[in-house]
């Protein structure tokens, strides 16, 4: 669950996370804050590692007291190879605070149903990028390609 005010910009390839693929956005990300009064500010490394990439950032001094949610969670619920459905859930106080579905057209490489909030949409794009990368790495080799010996 990423912080709802975190706007990821670039994937962190090796940031020292033990299981980076288990992070809410499918890996660690650099980015900036969109919390009121801190728009565009880049959080320090310890905040990225402990708050921004995880949500529920009660220790973050930039987190506004008044907010609609504490974290955002994503999950691919359908992957036909042509169309992907991505669920999102907002959480507040460790309880659901809203949800919805985003749709991605794999062939056109475009969102059929994007999220209206650009922060949430950007997080969805990052999650999808991580998902597609993991999927391509785990795809079996083409059995029709054989090396002649």
Layout of strands and helices, then pairs:
Elements: E1 6-12, E2 28-33, H1 45-52, E3 71-79, E4 83-92, E5 95-105, E6 110-113, H2 118-138
Antiparallel strand pairs: 1-2, 3-4, 4-5, 5-6
Q: What features would you describe in this structure?
A:
The structure is a single chain. 19% of the residues lie in helices and 32% in strands. By secondary structure, the protein is an alpha+beta fold. The chain has one domain. It has a 4-stranded antiparallel beta sheet, with helices on one face. The longest helix has 21 residues. The radius of gyration is 17 Å and the shape is globular. The termini are far apart. The C terminus is likely disordered.
Count the DSSP helices: 2
Major sheet characteristics: 4 strands, antiparallel
Query: Uncertain segments of ≥5 residues (pLDDT<50)?
Result: 145-149
Order of helices and strands: EEHEEEEH
When the domains are counted, the total is 1
Structural class: alpha+beta
Instruction: Tell me the strand percentage band.
Output: 25-35%
Strand order of the largest sheet: 3-4-5-6
Strand segment count: 6
What Rg is obtained from the alpha carbons, in whole angstroms? 17 Å
Outline, from the CA principal axes? globular
Percent of residues in helices comes to 10-25%
Distance between the termini: 49 Å
Mean pLDDT: 86
Considering the chains and any ligands shown, give keywords for the structure.
alpha+beta; 149 residues; 2 helices; four-stranded antiparallel beta sheet; globular; two-stranded antiparallel ribbon
